[in-house]
Amino acid sequence: MQIGILADTHNRNGSLQAALAYLSNNGIETIFHCGDVTSIETARLMVGFTVHYVYGNGDADANAIRDLLISANPASTGGLVFSAELDGVSIAATHGHVTGKVIALAAGGTYTYVFHGHTHVQKDQMIGKTRVINPGSLGSYRYGGRTLCVLDLKTGVSEYPSFE
Q: What are the residue ranges spanned by the domains of the chain?
């Protein structure tokens, strides 16, 4: 199963629309948004996908974003931390703004993958037996362009396409 991992959209709707079209064109129906969607209008663009959304420090109305995504697709989720199995793979996700949370999730050894955002810096590293992925940011050019991560949960193969 392939998934999309996004973070830090910050209302850059053009970049988000291009990223969602890319995912859709590649048959990807499930995405993780690791926080800082920022507005309900931006969240509406993700309707049509199963979205596992975690609250970011820039999400002033995180509960409304969560409620919109879940009402559009009951398989979607929302909260401060995601923790579940998907396609038989244990996954956790958080935004990254709560000090020590990413490291704690990874160091516990419970998860195959931990996804996060917040720093806008693309990262793919191992912490113990856990692979920690930050897809970069769709809302900023500051650290290497506007990117997301496409991950095959079974093979572990990943790619980081970029968008305008």
A: 2-163
